[in-house]
């Protein structure tokens, strides 16, 4: 497995995040305004991962809340998937959430996204519920949680 470096994204990284997020999600992208809104939002932190300081190949956006955390988005460039970047980002989010005192971390995931479901299950997340018609496509979301 490739070793990745994870770092906090800076506001000056907005264009890089926007391009990477669009590459990762295509027509399901949050769009430029949605991505830009992540910078400076209360409790939100954005992480990038790359190899040896090269161009980022993945990102995670998460939010610290009183006593808990929420993974808002995680994505990896399609040509870099299944190489450990997603796991490195998820581990970094879990570690960061623990450092700010979160007792649990929560997320929503499309149950049809088998790779994401497998990543979360391997990391110890368990299904806690469903949100009906959560996604623009009309698909439900699986709610998952992990104790930190």
User: What's the CATH H-level homologous superfamily of the domain at 5-107?
Assistant: Gcn5-related N-acetyltransferase (GNAT)
Helix content: 25-40%
The biggest sheet, with number of strands, parallel, antiparallel or mixed sense and barrel status, is: 7 strands, mixed
Mean pLDDT across every amino acid position: 88
Order of helices and strands: EHHEEEHEHEE
CATH architecture of the domain at 5-107: 3-Layer(aba) Sandwich
In the CATH hierarchy, what is the class of the domain at 5-107? Alpha Beta
Strand order of the largest sheet: 1-2-3-4-5-7-6
Strand content: 25-35%
First-to-last CA distance: 24 Å
Structural class: alpha+beta
Outline the low-pLDDT stretches.
none
Number of DSSP E strands: 7
User: Given the structure, what is the number of helices?
Assistant: 4
Shape summary: globular
- Radius of gyration, taken over Cα atoms and rounded to an integer in Å: 14 Å
Describe the structure.
The chain is of the alpha+beta class and 148 residues long. It has a domain at 5-107: Aminopeptidase (3-Layer(aba) Sandwich). Helix content is 28%, strand content 32%. The protein has 4 helices and 7 strands; from the N terminus they run E-H-H-E-E-E-H-E-H-E-E. The protein has a 7-stranded mixed beta sheet. The two termini are 24 Å apart. The relative contact order is 0.16. The mean pLDDT is 88.
